[in-house]
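As a warm-up, study this chain.
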Amino acid sequence: MARNEEEVKNCSFGFGEPNTAYAKYFTGESYLNPLANRANCSISNVSFEPGCINHWHMHTVAQTLVCVAGEGWVQEEGKPAHKMTPGDVYVVAPNTKHWHGAAKDSWFAHLSIMADTDKAKSTWLEPVDEDYYNNLK
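Now compare it with the structure written out below.
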């Protein structure tokens, strides 16, 4: 069993269902559990299998990521990758190119929180360079 699998699958925010709607923008398998989509705010728990990351992308509104289980990464273009462990919070400013996902040897789950969802649009870009990701420590 990979590191942190039980922690992620038994997270108090729920594991969710296969993330088929966005699968083409992910390397590996992810799972989505929408928690709230009211009052112009979206909150979802997103779980990633080891080695699963999303492609570079941007949102027109800020995105707050809160690690709730496992270990993962987030990176903004032009900045070093930032390791996330439970309790870490990372805010991505609007229109900032970034990616996030699991460490290559660990399951990972984070809350994705976005306000102003009536103005929110996502632009999906290229995959993260595989060699770069595989060498993150």
